[in-house]
Design goal:
The complex is a heterodimer of chains A (502) and B (315). Chain A contains 18 helices and 22 strands. With 502 residues, chain A is α/β, with parallel strands linked by helices. In chain A, strands 6-7-8-3-9-10 form a six-stranded mixed β-sheet, sandwiched between helices. Chain A has a six-stranded mixed β-sheet with strand order 16-19-20-13-21-22, with helices on both faces. In chain A, strands 2-1-4-5 form a four-stranded antiparallel β-sheet. In chain A, helix 14 crosses helix 15. The N terminus of chain A is likely disordered. Chain B has a single domain, classed as ABC transporter involved in vitamin B12 uptake, BtuC (Orthogonal Bundle). Chain B has a two-stranded antiparallel ribbon. The relative contact order of chain B is 0.20. The model of chain B has no long low-confidence stretch (mean pLDDT 91). The chains are: A alpha/beta (502), B mainly alpha (315). Chains A and B meet through helix 11, helix 12 and strand 18 of A and helix 1, helix 8 and helix 9 of B.
């Protein structure tokens, strides 16, 4: 096989400018048949713009694009699809009310007996064939709404294959999956690779790229930094390429002294979800909470915050017993909740940085209901610079900020409110290595300043690196508790799997 | 930097303003009478009813809701007001009764939407029928007509040369602008419409906000009823048919998004004026009211299409 056949996709000198920003500045990317090509870079590096150009969702300003030696314009998603490009976005494009088979063949249903009718039997058997080829067991007749995230993702993969995609782009495919599901996804990816499908894989998790990737292309600030063979690369080397500097101190050392108790929870129960949870949290403490997906971690935070009702249990805040009935009440008691899904639950995307930072503290910035815009701007500006939020201006809509900066805005909202007890649910999900390190440092600074922090995370290194104590949940119950010194990944995992704490 | 941002954030209302000016320009070429002070004041006066209702509708739409009941509420509030006047209530008290009835209907909408968790479309669709029925019941289906001079002055009188109703409209807009832009409540309205869950988890009293929004919307429909009753010297139980659609149109032409989180009262005012100018101009040109309907529909669609193009360009 000669080289031109080997190379499925060749993008050269791709340029994309937005008013005031250059998103891509002459980026090259070539992807070969049957390889997993990882696209690596911090948020805002230009990965998603590159993918959108490939998907036909955004038009490039300059550069050439060839698929199997043929030049393409790719000005519409449809054209990209016909050219053999299939993109699986983080937010799936499935119709929840239709069945798996109907989703896979949406818009290309096999014709039935008469025009306008669908050959149901063929639809189902074809879907079955594709799913079987992927080695996954999903009933093609089941409704997509009833499937878990991992299964829905498989349906997306099957859909991509059904259009005979030669290039499959996966945007952070593992961000919502459990370890076991990730394993299964990797099996499917390997199978695709054997069939000669080229896979462009975007992920922030370095571990994954060593497990699944063949080559990696690193972008930074819209420029191409380089393409490497993964087997010949090191973690530190890749991080250096991504951030342009060494990141030795990912987890800053603990410095805080743990003070008096500020939150006590006893027997917190929400039927079917939480079962008799008890713990205490102190001033200046970072309490880690981990467990598998569905163990009830987020549910615990929501119940504490008054967002979901509880069936039993007692809660004390700073020594006095309270019954938290609403988020408003929780906030008045000094709690802050950094939600897992910042776009859906944390931010008003259409509002400005200032408006979001001040949203939970409008009482502070208003007199008799009238806003004092000057005070508000001053405080937002102070917090934005303290948190190093990168934004063209404080009036910018948070919609236009990168994930890491959006997360800082959410954090700013609770700092603005001077919340004393902070519940952080997956604070580093979907943000890049550089921003992660910043978030870690911020968490340290906050605990040093006497805040009490409960941090929920699926990433063990994060939990181990940050926490003073670690709680592990399994099926709605606390299955283990560790001091920072005695915790090991193995012990935590055993508890998380529910192999009874003892 | 700040200037650029200011231009961007005001570009949308200015864009609509440009449409208004262009429309006025075309009409004034076709009929010179259009651009005379009496006629322009006439346009403003004809716009008052829709413009006042559209303020409330803008609040509702920014909060990601819809209110189909404003036309019926207007009719109901109008007949209550008229009957109060006939019963000899003092003028301020009667007006208060009309606006109060409108507000009460709106509050019920708000309660149904928050406590009852009904979609706004359904709750206000129900209220649309209930309020209309109430207006018909209260009057036996007959108009209530004939009021004193002082009441009729409200819509027909003038302050200097400016019609009193136009002054009222401008006051309502000034107040609404202040509330939306400068108060805590205004901020909450955008937050609730932009992302209800995030607002809730940030401690925004979402339920109370919504009740207040629908209450205001009903109250403004009641205020519009005062003006209409005064102008016609009569309250009709079948008044206000399809006024809700005019109000929605004004807000949407003015840049409000039915998805919520976006919109401005200034845009809505311009939107209402565009509709008023179009009607007036077509009247002056002797175009039949049937054709006017078609024109207005085309303008609504064109305005929203332009808006979408404008937004895509920025992407």
């Amino acid at each position: 096989m000669d080289h031109s056949v080997q190379t499925v996709l060749s993008m050269k000198g791709i340029v994309k400018r937005y008013p005031g920003v250059v998103a891509l500045e002459g980026v090259d990317l070539d992807v070969r048949r049957g390889e997993v090509h990882v696209l690596l870079g911090e948020n805002g590096a230009g990965k998603s713009t590159l993918v959108k150009i490939l998907a036909g969702a955004v038009r490039r300003d300059a550069g050439t694009l060839e698929i199997e030696g043929r030049a393409y314009e790719l000005s519409t998603p449809r054209e990209a699809q016909t050219a053999g490009v299939s993109v699986i976005y983080q937010e799936f494009n499935l119709v929840p009310g239709l069945t798996v088979a109907e989703n896979i063949f949406l818009g290309r249903e096999p014709r039935g007996f008469l025009p306008g009718f669908i050959d149901q039997a063929l639809l189902v058997s074809e879907a079955e064939r594709i799913l079987h080829g992927l080695g996954v067991v999903i009933d093609p007749r089941s409704v997509v709404r009833s499937l878990g995230v991992a299964e829905q993702q498989m349906v997306e993969v099957a859909k991509a294959l059904s259009v005979d995609a030669r290039i499959v782009v996966m945007d952070e495919p593992t961000s919502a999956l459990t370890e076991r599901e990730i394993g299964r996804l990797f099996m499917v990816i390997r199978r695709l690779r054997e069939r000669g499908v080229a896979i462009i894989y975007i992920s922030h998790r370095l571990d994954e790229l060593f497990q699944i990737g063949d080559r990696v292309t690193v972008l930074r600030d819209g420029r191409l930094i380089g393409t490497r063979v993964i087997a010949e690369s090191t973690r530190a080397g890749l991080i250096r390429m991504m951030v342009g500097r060494d990141l030795t101190e990912q987890f800053p050392p603990r410095g805080a002294t743990v003070g008096e108790e500020v939150l006590r929870v006893e027997g917190l129960t929400r039927r079917g979800v939480l079962d008799g949870i008890s713990f205490v949290l102190h001033r200046g403490e970072v309490l880690g909470l981990t467990g598998l997906m569905g163990a009830g971690r987020t549910e615990l935070a929501r119940a504490l915050f008054g967002a979901d009702p509880i069936d039993a249990g007692r809660v004390w805040v700073r020594g006095s017993e309270v019954v938290i009935r609403s988020p408003q009440h929780a906030i008045r008691l000094g709690l802050g909740f950094l939600t897992e899904d910042r776009k859906r639950q944390g931010l008003v995307l259409g509002c400005s940085v200032t408006e979001n930072i001040c949203l939970a503290s409008l009482d502070r910035f208003s007199r008799g209901g009238v806003m004092q815009a000057g005070n508000e701007r001053a405080e937002a500006s102070r917090l934005a610079s303290e948190l190093r939020v990168k934004t063209p201006s404080l009036g910018e809509r948070v919609l236009n900020l990168s994930g890491g900066n959006q997360q800082k805005v959410v954090l700013g909202k609770w700092l603005c409110r001077s919340a004393e007890i902070l519940l952080f649910d997956e604070p580093t999900r979907g943000i890049d290595v550089g921003a992660k390190a910043e978030v870690y440092q911020l968490i340290r600074r906050l605990s040093a300043a006497g805040k009490a922090i409960l941090i929920i995370s699926s990433e063990l290194p994060e939990i181990l690196g940050l926490s003073d104590r670690i709680l592990v949940m399994s099926r709605g119950r606390l299955s283990g508790m560790f001091g920072a010194a005695e915790a090991t990944p193995e012990a935590i995992l055993r508890c998380a799997l529910g192999a009874d704490a003892a | 930097m700040n200037l650029r941002r200011a231009i961007i954030s005001y570009a949308r209302p200015f864009g609509t303003l440009a449409v208004l000016v262009a429309l006025g320009g075309i009409i004034s070429v076709l009929t010179p009478y259009f651009l005379t002070v009496p006629n322009l004041l006439n346009v403003a006066q004809q716009t008052v009813i829709n413009a006042v209702i559209a303020v409330g509708m803008t609040l509702v739409i920014i909060s990601a809701g819809i209110d189909l009941s404003v036309g019926s509420i207007l009719a109901f509030a109008g007949v209550v007001l008229a009957q109060a006047l006939h019963a000899g209530w003092p003028l301020p008290l009667a007006i208060l009764a009309g606006v109060g009835v409108g507000t009460a209907c709106g509050l019920v909408n708000g309660l149904l939407i928050t406590m009852g968790r009904l979609p706004p479309f359904i709750a206000t669709l129900g209220m649309m029928s209930v309020a209309r029925g109430a207006a018909l019941l209260a009057t036996g289906g007959r108009p209530v007509s004939g009021f004193g001079e002082s009441f009729r002055w409200l819509a027909n009188g003038r302050l200097a040369t400016v019609p009193a109703a136009v002054v009222l409209m401008l006051l309502v807009y000034a107040a609404a602008y202040f509330v939306l832009r400068r108060t805590k409540f205004g901020r909450y309205v955008y937050a609730v419409g932009g992302n209800e869950e995030a607002a809730l988890l940030s401690g925004v009293p979402v339920g109370i906000c919504k009740i207040a929004i629908y209450g205001s919307c009903g109250g403004l429909a009641g205020l519009a009823a005062v003006v209409l009753t005064s102008r016609l010297n009569s309250a009709q139980p079948i008044a206000g048919l399809s006024y809700e659609l005019d109000a929605i149109a004004a807000a949407v032409i003015g840049g409000a998004s039915l998805m919520g989180g976006e919109g401005s009262v200034l845009g809505t005012l311009v939107g209402a004026l565009i509709m008023g100018v179009l009607r007036n101009g077509l009247n002056l040109l002797g175009v039949s009211s049937f054709v006017q309907q078609v024109f207005i529909g085309v303008v609504i669609i064109a305005a929203v299409l332009l808006d979408m193009l404008f937004k895509q360009r920025k992407r």
